[in-house]
Design a protein that fits this description.
Strand content: 15-25%
Order of helices and strands: EHEHEEEHEHEHEHEHEEEEHHHH
Shape: globular
Largest sheet: 9 strands, parallel
Number of helices: 11
Helix content: 25-40%
Oligomer: single chain
Number of strands: 13
Mean pLDDT: 87
Structural class: alpha/beta
Amino acid sequence: MSLQSSACLGASRILLHASRGEGAARFWSESDGIVFAGSIGARAVRDRRRCGSDQPLAIDDERYLTRDDGQLKLIDDVALAARAQSDREVACYLAPSMDARSLPAVCRVLDAGERFLESADAQAHPAPGYVPVVIRPEFRRALLDDLCAELEDRALPIALMFAASFDPLNSVADVAAARQLASAVRDGIVLRCDLSAIGLVAAGLRFGAIGASAELRHVYVPIRRPSAAPRDLSAHVFVPMLRAWMRGSQLTYVDETIELFRCECRVCQGDTVLRFAESGRDDTALRLLAEAHAALAWRDLAARILERSEADRLGAWLEECAAAQQNFRDLRRYGVDLAAPGYLAAWTSTAPGRVAQSRS
Protein backbone atom coordinates (compact mmCIF):
# COMPACT_ATOMS: atom_id res chain seq x y z
CA MET A 1 0.00 0.00 0.00
CA SER A 2 1.75 3.14 -1.18
CA LEU A 3 1.42 6.74 -0.11
CA GLN A 4 1.58 9.13 -3.01
CA SER A 5 3.03 12.61 -2.67
CA SER A 6 0.84 15.17 -0.90
CA ALA A 7 2.04 17.95 -3.21
CA CYS A 8 -1.15 17.61 -5.30
CA LEU A 9 -3.24 18.79 -2.35
CA GLY A 10 -2.63 22.43 -3.16
CA ALA A 11 -0.59 25.40 -2.07
CA SER A 12 -2.16 25.51 1.40
CA ARG A 13 -2.18 22.72 3.99
CA ILE A 14 -5.56 23.98 5.22
CA LEU A 15 -8.36 22.97 2.86
CA LEU A 16 -11.98 24.05 2.60
CA HIS A 17 -14.63 21.47 3.54
CA ALA A 18 -17.81 22.35 1.66
CA SER A 19 -21.04 20.74 0.51
CA ARG A 20 -21.72 22.90 -2.55
CA GLY A 21 -19.99 24.91 -5.22
CA GLU A 22 -21.44 28.23 -4.09
CA GLY A 23 -20.48 30.56 -1.24
CA ALA A 24 -17.01 29.90 0.13
CA ALA A 25 -16.14 27.45 -2.66
CA ARG A 26 -16.78 30.09 -5.32
CA PHE A 27 -14.29 32.51 -3.71
CA TRP A 28 -11.72 29.84 -2.84
CA SER A 29 -8.35 30.04 -4.57
CA GLU A 30 -7.91 27.65 -7.51
CA SER A 31 -4.49 26.73 -6.10
CA ASP A 32 -5.97 25.50 -2.81
CA GLY A 33 -7.86 22.29 -2.21
CA ILE A 34 -11.54 21.67 -1.42
CA VAL A 35 -13.04 18.58 0.21
CA PHE A 36 -16.63 18.29 -1.01
CA ALA A 37 -19.09 16.45 1.23
CA GLY A 38 -22.10 14.32 0.32
CA SER A 39 -23.73 13.47 -2.99
CA ILE A 40 -24.13 17.17 -3.88
CA GLY A 41 -20.42 17.64 -3.25
CA ALA A 42 -19.59 14.66 -5.48
CA ARG A 43 -21.57 16.27 -8.29
CA ALA A 44 -19.73 19.55 -7.68
CA VAL A 45 -16.41 17.73 -8.21
CA ARG A 46 -17.73 16.11 -11.40
CA ASP A 47 -18.98 19.43 -12.75
CA ARG A 48 -15.68 21.19 -12.07
CA ARG A 49 -13.73 18.45 -13.81
CA ARG A 50 -16.06 18.63 -16.82
CA CYS A 51 -15.32 22.35 -17.00
CA GLY A 52 -11.61 21.59 -17.17
CA SER A 53 -10.66 22.56 -13.61
CA ASP A 54 -7.50 20.98 -12.24
CA GLN A 55 -8.07 22.36 -8.72
CA PRO A 56 -7.13 19.91 -5.92
CA LEU A 57 -10.46 18.29 -4.95
CA ALA A 58 -11.53 15.38 -2.74
CA ILE A 59 -14.83 13.66 -1.95
CA ASP A 60 -16.12 12.99 1.58
CA ASP A 61 -19.11 10.91 0.58
CA GLU A 62 -21.42 8.47 2.39
CA ARG A 63 -23.25 7.15 -0.67
CA TYR A 64 -21.28 3.93 -0.38
CA LEU A 65 -22.93 3.04 2.94
CA THR A 66 -25.91 0.76 3.37
CA ARG A 67 -28.34 0.30 6.26
CA ASP A 68 -28.70 -3.12 7.89
CA ASP A 69 -30.99 -3.68 10.90
CA GLY A 70 -30.91 0.03 11.69
CA GLN A 71 -27.11 0.21 11.61
CA LEU A 72 -24.95 1.75 8.92
CA LYS A 73 -22.26 -0.45 7.45
CA LEU A 74 -19.83 -0.21 4.58
CA ILE A 75 -20.80 -2.06 1.42
CA ASP A 76 -18.52 -4.96 0.54
CA ASP A 77 -17.47 -3.59 -2.84
CA VAL A 78 -15.31 -0.68 -1.66
CA ALA A 79 -13.74 -0.69 -5.12
CA LEU A 80 -16.88 1.15 -6.26
CA ALA A 81 -15.94 4.15 -4.11
CA ALA A 82 -12.33 4.08 -5.31
CA ARG A 83 -13.36 3.92 -8.98
CA ALA A 84 -15.79 6.81 -8.58
CA GLN A 85 -13.11 8.97 -6.97
CA SER A 86 -10.53 7.98 -9.57
CA ASP A 87 -12.91 9.02 -12.37
CA ARG A 88 -13.09 12.47 -10.76
CA GLU A 89 -9.28 12.71 -10.46
CA VAL A 90 -9.31 13.42 -6.74
CA ALA A 91 -6.36 14.99 -4.97
CA CYS A 92 -6.64 12.32 -2.29
CA TYR A 93 -8.79 9.23 -1.91
CA LEU A 94 -11.07 9.16 1.14
CA ALA A 95 -12.62 5.89 2.26
CA PRO A 96 -16.36 6.05 3.08
CA SER A 97 -16.80 7.35 6.63
CA MET A 98 -18.94 5.76 9.33
CA ASP A 99 -19.69 6.70 12.94
CA ALA A 100 -18.45 3.63 14.86
CA ARG A 101 -19.55 3.53 18.49
CA SER A 102 -17.22 0.88 19.88
CA LEU A 103 -13.62 -0.20 19.44
CA PRO A 104 -14.62 -3.44 17.60
CA ALA A 105 -16.70 -1.28 15.25
CA VAL A 106 -13.69 0.97 14.62
CA CYS A 107 -11.67 -2.14 13.80
CA ARG A 108 -14.26 -3.11 11.17
CA VAL A 109 -14.04 0.39 9.71
CA LEU A 110 -10.26 0.06 9.55
CA ASP A 111 -10.58 -3.36 7.87
CA ALA A 112 -12.86 -1.88 5.20
CA GLY A 113 -10.60 1.14 4.91
CA GLU A 114 -7.60 -1.06 4.26
CA ARG A 115 -9.49 -2.77 1.43
CA PHE A 116 -10.42 0.65 0.09
CA LEU A 117 -6.79 1.80 0.08
CA GLU A 118 -5.78 -1.34 -1.81
CA SER A 119 -8.47 -0.57 -4.39
CA ALA A 120 -7.33 3.06 -4.59
CA ASP A 121 -3.75 1.95 -5.22
CA ALA A 122 -4.98 -0.15 -8.13
CA GLN A 123 -6.69 2.80 -9.86
CA ALA A 124 -5.22 4.53 -12.88
CA HIS A 125 -5.34 7.92 -11.15
CA PRO A 126 -2.51 8.20 -8.54
CA ALA A 127 -3.25 10.04 -5.28
CA PRO A 128 -2.70 9.49 -1.53
CA GLY A 129 -5.46 7.72 0.37
CA TYR A 130 -6.86 8.09 3.89
CA VAL A 131 -9.29 6.19 6.11
CA PRO A 132 -11.67 8.52 8.04
CA VAL A 133 -12.16 7.57 11.69
CA VAL A 134 -14.88 9.35 13.68
CA ILE A 135 -13.55 10.21 17.15
CA ARG A 136 -16.57 10.16 19.47
CA PRO A 137 -16.31 11.59 23.04
CA GLU A 138 -15.67 8.15 24.57
CA PHE A 139 -12.66 7.72 22.29
CA ARG A 140 -11.18 10.89 23.77
CA ARG A 141 -11.68 9.58 27.31
CA ALA A 142 -11.87 5.98 28.56
CA LEU A 143 -11.02 4.33 25.22
CA LEU A 144 -8.29 6.77 24.17
CA ASP A 145 -5.27 4.56 24.93
CA ASP A 146 -6.91 1.50 23.35
CA LEU A 147 -7.78 3.39 20.18
CA CYS A 148 -4.28 4.91 19.94
CA ALA A 149 -2.75 1.44 20.29
CA GLU A 150 -5.00 0.11 17.50
CA LEU A 151 -4.17 2.99 15.16
CA GLU A 152 -0.47 2.68 15.85
CA ASP A 153 -0.56 -1.07 15.25
CA ARG A 154 -2.47 -0.71 11.95
CA ALA A 155 -0.09 1.97 10.61
CA LEU A 156 -2.74 3.20 8.15
CA PRO A 157 -3.05 6.78 6.87
CA ILE A 158 -5.93 8.18 8.93
CA ALA A 159 -8.32 11.12 8.57
CA LEU A 160 -9.44 12.15 12.07
CA MET A 161 -13.02 13.46 12.31
CA PHE A 162 -14.01 14.67 15.79
CA ALA A 163 -17.57 14.17 16.99
CA ALA A 164 -19.60 15.87 19.72
CA SER A 165 -22.89 17.65 20.34
CA PHE A 166 -21.03 20.99 20.31
CA ASP A 167 -17.34 21.83 19.84
CA PRO A 168 -15.43 18.55 20.31
CA LEU A 169 -12.11 20.28 21.07
CA ASN A 170 -13.14 22.88 23.64
CA SER A 171 -11.26 21.53 26.67
CA VAL A 172 -7.64 20.91 27.57
CA ALA A 173 -8.36 17.18 27.81
CA ASP A 174 -9.91 17.09 24.33
CA VAL A 175 -6.98 18.94 22.74
CA ALA A 176 -4.51 16.67 24.53
CA ALA A 177 -6.44 13.63 23.29
CA ALA A 178 -6.42 14.97 19.72
CA ARG A 179 -2.66 15.42 19.84
CA GLN A 180 -2.20 11.93 21.30
CA LEU A 181 -4.29 10.47 18.47
CA ALA A 182 -2.30 12.46 15.93
CA SER A 183 0.91 10.99 17.35
CA ALA A 184 -0.48 7.46 17.04
CA VAL A 185 -1.11 7.50 13.28
CA ARG A 186 1.44 6.81 10.59
CA ASP A 187 0.21 9.66 8.42
CA GLY A 188 -2.62 11.86 9.64
CA ILE A 189 -5.00 14.55 8.48
CA VAL A 190 -8.07 16.11 10.10
CA LEU A 191 -11.39 16.69 8.33
CA ARG A 192 -14.68 18.43 9.23
CA CYS A 193 -12.95 20.65 11.76
CA ASP A 194 -12.96 24.27 12.94
CA LEU A 195 -9.93 26.49 13.64
CA SER A 196 -8.39 23.68 15.70
CA ALA A 197 -7.41 22.17 12.35
CA ILE A 198 -4.78 24.93 12.11
CA GLY A 199 -3.43 23.98 15.52
CA LEU A 200 -3.28 20.28 14.66
CA VAL A 201 -1.50 20.94 11.35
CA ALA A 202 0.87 23.32 13.15
CA ALA A 203 1.52 20.48 15.61
CA GLY A 204 2.43 18.08 12.82
CA LEU A 205 -0.54 16.65 10.92
CA ARG A 206 -0.11 16.66 7.14
CA PHE A 207 -3.15 18.82 6.36
CA GLY A 208 -6.60 19.73 7.66
CA ALA A 209 -9.98 20.84 6.34
CA ILE A 210 -12.21 23.48 7.96
CA GLY A 211 -15.96 23.43 7.34
CA ALA A 212 -17.57 26.22 5.34
CA SER A 213 -20.75 25.72 7.38
CA ALA A 214 -21.37 24.74 10.99
CA GLU A 215 -22.57 21.28 9.91
CA LEU A 216 -19.11 20.53 8.48
CA ARG A 217 -17.04 21.75 11.44
CA HIS A 218 -17.50 18.51 13.38
CA VAL A 219 -19.46 15.28 13.26
CA TYR A 220 -22.67 15.92 15.15
CA VAL A 221 -23.66 13.66 18.05
CA PRO A 222 -27.33 14.36 18.92
CA ILE A 223 -28.39 14.99 22.50
CA ARG A 224 -31.72 15.41 24.21
CA ARG A 225 -32.61 19.05 24.77
CA PRO A 226 -35.03 20.31 27.41
CA SER A 227 -38.24 21.47 25.76
CA ALA A 228 -37.79 24.87 27.40
CA ALA A 229 -34.38 25.43 25.77
CA PRO A 230 -34.89 26.12 22.04
CA ARG A 231 -31.87 26.17 19.77
CA ASP A 232 -30.36 29.47 18.68
CA LEU A 233 -30.87 29.42 14.90
CA SER A 234 -29.24 32.78 14.19
CA ALA A 235 -26.29 33.05 11.82
CA HIS A 236 -22.74 31.97 12.61
CA VAL A 237 -20.49 35.00 12.03
CA PHE A 238 -16.72 34.58 11.88
CA VAL A 239 -14.89 37.43 13.64
CA PRO A 240 -11.22 37.29 12.55
CA MET A 241 -9.85 39.36 15.45
CA LEU A 242 -11.56 37.01 17.89
CA ARG A 243 -10.53 33.84 15.96
CA ALA A 244 -14.07 32.64 16.56
CA TRP A 245 -17.56 32.19 15.14
CA MET A 246 -20.19 34.12 17.11
CA ARG A 247 -23.95 33.79 16.89
CA GLY A 248 -25.77 36.61 15.14
CA SER A 249 -28.05 36.94 18.18
CA GLN A 250 -24.98 37.87 20.27
CA LEU A 251 -23.97 40.64 17.88
CA THR A 252 -27.32 42.36 17.26
CA TYR A 253 -26.66 45.35 19.53
CA VAL A 254 -22.88 45.65 19.13
CA ASP A 255 -21.62 49.06 17.99
CA GLU A 256 -20.56 48.81 14.33
CA THR A 257 -17.73 51.31 14.84
CA ILE A 258 -15.72 48.92 17.06
CA GLU A 259 -12.55 48.17 15.10
CA LEU A 260 -12.25 44.60 16.38
CA PHE A 261 -15.20 43.65 14.17
CA ARG A 262 -13.68 44.91 10.92
CA CYS A 263 -12.15 42.56 8.35
CA GLU A 264 -9.77 43.09 5.44
CA CYS A 265 -10.62 39.95 3.45
CA ARG A 266 -11.57 40.17 -0.25
CA VAL A 267 -15.27 40.06 0.60
CA CYS A 268 -15.24 42.64 3.41
CA GLN A 269 -12.48 45.06 2.29
CA GLY A 270 -12.38 46.81 5.65
CA ASP A 271 -16.12 46.67 6.36
CA THR A 272 -17.59 45.33 9.61
CA VAL A 273 -18.56 41.66 9.90
CA LEU A 274 -21.57 42.69 11.98
CA ARG A 275 -23.54 43.05 8.75
CA PHE A 276 -23.61 39.24 8.56
CA ALA A 277 -25.47 38.91 11.87
CA GLU A 278 -28.82 38.76 10.07
CA SER A 279 -27.72 36.39 7.29
CA GLY A 280 -29.77 33.57 8.81
CA ARG A 281 -29.80 29.90 7.87
CA ASP A 282 -31.29 30.10 4.38
CA ASP A 283 -29.16 30.06 1.24
CA THR A 284 -29.42 33.80 0.78
CA ALA A 285 -26.78 35.84 -1.00
CA LEU A 286 -25.78 37.38 2.33
CA ARG A 287 -25.27 33.99 3.95
CA LEU A 288 -23.14 32.78 1.05
CA LEU A 289 -21.02 35.93 1.35
CA ALA A 290 -20.70 35.33 5.10
CA GLU A 291 -19.35 31.82 4.44
CA ALA A 292 -16.95 33.16 1.82
CA HIS A 293 -15.72 35.87 4.21
CA ALA A 294 -15.09 33.29 6.94
CA ALA A 295 -13.11 30.99 4.66
CA LEU A 296 -10.94 33.79 3.27
CA ALA A 297 -10.29 35.17 6.75
CA TRP A 298 -9.24 31.89 8.37
CA ARG A 299 -7.17 31.03 5.30
CA ASP A 300 -5.17 34.22 5.93
CA LEU A 301 -4.79 33.20 9.57
CA ALA A 302 -3.55 29.75 8.57
CA ALA A 303 -1.12 31.24 6.05
CA ARG A 304 0.46 33.47 8.69
CA ILE A 305 1.10 30.47 10.90
CA LEU A 306 2.13 27.85 8.34
CA GLU A 307 4.61 30.16 6.61
CA ARG A 308 6.69 29.93 9.78
CA SER A 309 9.30 27.22 10.23
CA GLU A 310 8.01 23.84 11.43
CA ALA A 311 9.57 24.41 14.83
CA ASP A 312 7.74 27.74 15.28
CA ARG A 313 4.26 26.95 13.90
CA LEU A 314 2.64 25.60 17.03
CA GLY A 315 4.00 28.49 19.09
CA ALA A 316 2.59 30.93 16.51
CA TRP A 317 -0.84 29.26 16.76
CA LEU A 318 -0.78 29.50 20.55
CA GLU A 319 0.13 33.19 20.28
CA GLU A 320 -2.88 33.76 18.00
CA CYS A 321 -5.16 32.03 20.53
CA ALA A 322 -3.76 34.16 23.37
CA ALA A 323 -4.20 37.35 21.34
CA ALA A 324 -7.82 36.43 20.62
CA GLN A 325 -8.50 35.90 24.32
CA GLN A 326 -7.08 39.36 25.03
CA ASN A 327 -9.34 40.86 22.35
CA PHE A 328 -12.37 39.29 24.04
CA ARG A 329 -11.29 41.00 27.28
CA ASP A 330 -10.72 44.31 25.48
CA LEU A 331 -14.31 44.28 24.21
CA ARG A 332 -15.56 44.76 27.76
CA ARG A 333 -14.33 48.35 27.59
CA TYR A 334 -17.09 48.93 25.03
CA GLY A 335 -19.69 47.20 27.16
CA VAL A 336 -19.53 44.06 24.99
CA ASP A 337 -19.24 40.92 27.11
CA LEU A 338 -18.89 37.92 24.82
CA ALA A 339 -17.79 34.47 25.97
CA ALA A 340 -14.64 33.23 24.26
CA PRO A 341 -14.94 29.73 22.77
CA GLY A 342 -13.40 26.99 24.85
CA TYR A 343 -10.84 25.95 22.25
CA LEU A 344 -8.88 29.20 22.68
CA ALA A 345 -8.17 28.51 26.37
CA ALA A 346 -7.75 24.79 25.67
CA TRP A 347 -4.97 25.44 23.17
CA THR A 348 -3.20 28.17 25.17
CA SER A 349 -3.10 25.76 28.12
CA THR A 350 -1.39 23.06 26.09
CA ALA A 351 2.35 22.58 26.02
CA PRO A 352 4.16 23.40 22.75
CA GLY A 353 5.62 20.45 20.90
CA ARG A 354 5.06 18.67 17.62
CA VAL A 355 3.41 15.31 17.20
CA ALA A 356 5.74 12.59 16.00
CA GLN A 357 4.65 10.89 12.78
CA SER A 358 6.36 8.72 10.25
CA ARG A 359 6.31 10.30 6.80
CA SER A 360 7.54 7.23 4.96
